[in-house]
Amino acid sequence: MVSQQEVTQSARGGATPPPAPRNEAATRPPVDVFETADGIKLVADMPGVSKEHLHLQAEGNTLTIEGQVQFDMPEKMEALHAEVRSTLYRCSFVLSSELDTSHIEAILKDGVLAVRIPKRQELRPRRIQVQTG
């Protein structure tokens, strides 16, 4: 799981590798967005991307996701055909001001990235107890 600290570090040039050059052609990964009472969840298909080559950045109200596919070819082997047109995934989202970007959670498993962004605490629905008396 990528913690908010790691997301923040990547925004400041920390442990996460820098994003690929902007002039490289990128593929927008398929992303599903789900809204719940507590926030939103983004699920992106990014096959071939490892945690080390994944870069998430939350800056202002924008979330940027970039991932570099790494192909490890055995020595003296050459790919004759590849169905991958680009080795770079890139997408960005403008986030609502009701979301709390300081508590973003991200999990990468089997080429699927799940990002959870909660609503700010004061905007979450809450149940009010009714007393009799």
Quote the beta fraction. Answer: 35-45%
Second-tier CATH architecture: Sandwich
Rg (CA only) = 18 Å
- Main beta sheet: 4 strands, antiparallel
Listing every helix as H and every strand as E from the N terminus to the C terminus, the arrangement reads HEEEEEEE
Number of domains: 1
Summarize the amount of helix as a percent range.
under 10%
By CATH reckoning, the class would read Mainly Beta
Distance between the termini: 48 Å
Secondary-structure-derived class: mainly beta
User: Which strand order do you get reading across the main beta sheet?
Assistant: 1-2-7-6
CATH topology-level fold name: Immunoglobulin-like
What is the typical, i.e. mean, pLDDT?
A: 81
Globally, the shape reads elongated
Number of strands: 7
Q: Which residue ranges are poorly predicted, with pLDDT under 50 across at least 5 consecutive positions? A: 3-18
Number of helices in the DSSP assignment: 1
What do these coordinates show?
By secondary structure, this protein is mainly beta. It has one helix and seven strands, in the order H-E-E-E-E-E-E-E. Strands 1-2-7-6 form a four-stranded antiparallel beta sheet, with no helix packed on it. A three-stranded antiparallel beta sheet has the order 3-4-5. The radius of gyration is 18 Å and the shape is elongated. The N terminus is likely disordered.
